[in-house]
Design brief:
The protein has helices at about 45-60, 110-115, 135-150, 160-180, 180-190, 190-195, 200-210, 220-235, 255-260, 290-300, 315-325, 335-345, 345-375, 385-415, 435-440, 450-455; strands at about 20, 25, 30-35, 40, 80-85, 90, 100-105, 105, 130, 195, 215, 245-250, 265, 275, 285-290, 305-310, 325-330, 425-430, 430, 445, 460. The chain is an alpha/beta fold. The protein folds into three domains: about 20-40 and about 195-330, 3-Layer(aba) Sandwich (Rossmann fold), CATH 3.40.50.1000; about 45-190, no CATH class; about 345-415. The chain has a ten-stranded mixed sheet. Helix 1 (about 45-60) packs across helix 4, helix 3 packs antiparallel against helix 4 (about 160-180) and helix 11 runs parallel beside helix 15 (about 435-440). The protein is globular. The chain binds guanosine-5'-monophosphate (5GP) and magnesium ion (MG).
């Protein structure tokens, strides 16, 4: 902690809470948390590797060859989009234009990508596209890419399409998540799979101490939630993890939880014994299922005073915001690496911006000279001899070529930071990525981890920055 009179300073950029829409934390009366990849951060390489392997075993049981399927988590990132129809994974910009694509496990050359996608826009409302909503999507992308290669090689049963392969990936992963073996492994050796964060319990205690009701609303089942929450919090919280929360809801079946009117059951003992719940929800209770209306009734506060914090762009923030008008916070752990990469590229980005400004100037001068030549051709020139204009033009061309040679390596480096194949997660060239657009639309605020609320404090007034527009005067 800094001394009370120390000069004020903001938290490091990677640990800030960023606002798309202004959020006054003082006005928030209740904070609901998702569990997996929100309160609990998994070591993705380890967790997803096991999910991948469990699903691969199931695929092998179909008699499909699976030896070539490889788990390569660095090959994909959250926010990419699976194209079930063509066996690809793509990155799109905010308008849905594909800016990069991988077919199977191979990154497509620009020309190949253009041939496939110049007339196609990614529209997440179409079943063709599957958005990689969370870090749980990494195993899915690896399996789909590997199977798409096998479709191409003719090694899957005759007639198997990319879509069929995707359906098999989905059902295998679903089964791996739902049947007990994978989760049993996680719970047995949590230190292999869970990344602890000492600041997290303190952040939650602060929020509670500031008078906010805290809730867990997770799709995970009770036994898993109990064991993982206990492992993560009990060592730091004298009263144990349950003492942090006013309400715990497991098996929530989000997004339906936020849309429907499913009944709720109370879990009456540690082993998970259920009984139907009648009347208002009990303070400190643990429930299974239910729906958001019951939570609102229990909290007795309007949606705009409830903040829901989650990592799933569709289930946790999109539906919550659009249907219930709850305030939303998205947890994006990869933001930390992204910010660090941007920080190390900062000077080069400045150089690149300066070179691009110079290029714009030369191009403008060149356009003017060409126009004067054109006018001269049309017989309404300004009298300067065309040879002189051509000399000027050729000089500019030389300067532009020289400039391009300096720009090219920097620009290439800029699109390869963070991830060699895909570049920064939130950007698509100079534009925003599709992921950034989804976040902007549905998350009022976003941050890399829940513990960042510790830095922000429960009193923060999180202001959205003045948005940039092409005509801004800078
Ligand atoms: P939450 O994020 O709501 O706390 O929990 C996410 C739950 O969804 C976890 O229990 C996780 O195992 C499960 N999950 C993640 N991906 C899949 C999937 O592809 N299929 C199924 N059936 N469950 C999944
Ligand atoms: Mg989650």
């Amino acid at each position: 902690m800094t001394a009370p009179h120390a000069a004020p300073s903001l938290p490091p950029v990677a640990r800030r809470v960023f606002a798309n829409r202004t959020l006054n934390l003082r006005a928030i009366e209740a904070v609901g948390f998702d569990m997996d990849y929100t309160l609990i951060h998994y070591r993705t390489d380890a967790w997803e590797r096991r999910a991948f392997e469990h699903a691969r075993e199931r695929i092998a049981k179909l008699g499909w060859p699976t030896e070539s399927l490889e788990f390569t988590p660095q090959a994909f990132t959250q926010g990419l989009v699976v194209d079930r129809k063509l066996g690809n994974v793509v990155k799109a910009n905010r308008f849905g234009f594909v800016v990069r694509a991988m077919h199977g496990t191979r990154v497509l050359e620009f020309e190949e990508q253009r041939a496939m996608y110049s007339r196609v826009l990614v529209d997440l409302a179409e079943p063709r596209w599957q958005f990689m909503n969370t870090l749980f999507s990494l195993s899915e992308a690896c399996l789909f890419a590997g199977l798409a290669d096998l479709v191409d090689a003719g090694k899957l049963p005759t007639g198997t399409s990319y879509e069929d392969a995707y359906a098999v990936v989905r059902s295998s992963l679903d089964a791996a998540h739902v049947e007990g073996a994978l989760k049993a492994e996680i719970v047995k050796e949590p230190d292999r799979f869970v990344e602890l964060d000492e600041e997290l319990p303190l952040a939650l205690r602060d929020l509670r101490q500031a008078g906010k009701k805290l809730l867990v609303i997770t799709n995970s089942e009770w036994e898993y939630t109990r064991d993982i929450m206990s492992y993560t919090f009990d060592r730091f919280v004298p009263g144990g993890w349950r003492s942090l929360f006013d309400l715990v809801i497991v098996g929530a079946r989000k997004p339906e939880f936020f849309m429907g009117s499913a009944p709720i059951f109370e879990i009456v003992d540690e082993s998970g014994l259920l009984r139907p719940s009648v009347g208002p929800l009990r303070e400190g209770g643990v429930y299974l299922g239910g729906n958001a209306r019951l939570v609102e009734k229990k909290l007795e506060c309007p949606g705009e005073r409830i903040l829901y914090v989650g990592d799933h762009i569709f289930s946790d923030v999109n539906v919550t915001k659009n249907l219930l008008r709850w305030r939303t916070a998205l947890i994006v752990r990869a933001l930390e690496d992204e910010v660090h990469a941007l920080e190390s590229f900062k000077q080069k980005q400045r150089d690149l911006d300066a070179l691009m400004a110079e290029k714009e100037l030369l191009e403008h001068a060149s356009g003017q000279l060409r126009l004067r030549l054109l006018r001269d051709d049309g017989g309404y020139g300004d009298g300067v001899p065309p040879a002189e204009l051509r000399r000027g033009l050729s000089q500019l061309r030389g300067q532009l070529e020289e400039l391009d040679a300096r720009i090219a390596p920097l620009a290439r480096e800029g699109v390869e930071i963070v991830n060699r194949s895909w570049g920064p997660m939130m950007r698509a060239g100079n534009d925003k990525s599709h992921l950034a657009r989804q976040i902007e639309r549905h998350a009022d605020v976003y941050t890399s981890r829940v513990a960042n609320f510790l830095y922000a404090t429960p009193f923060a007034y999180l202001r959205s920055p003045r948005g940039s527009l092409p005509h801004d005067v800078v």
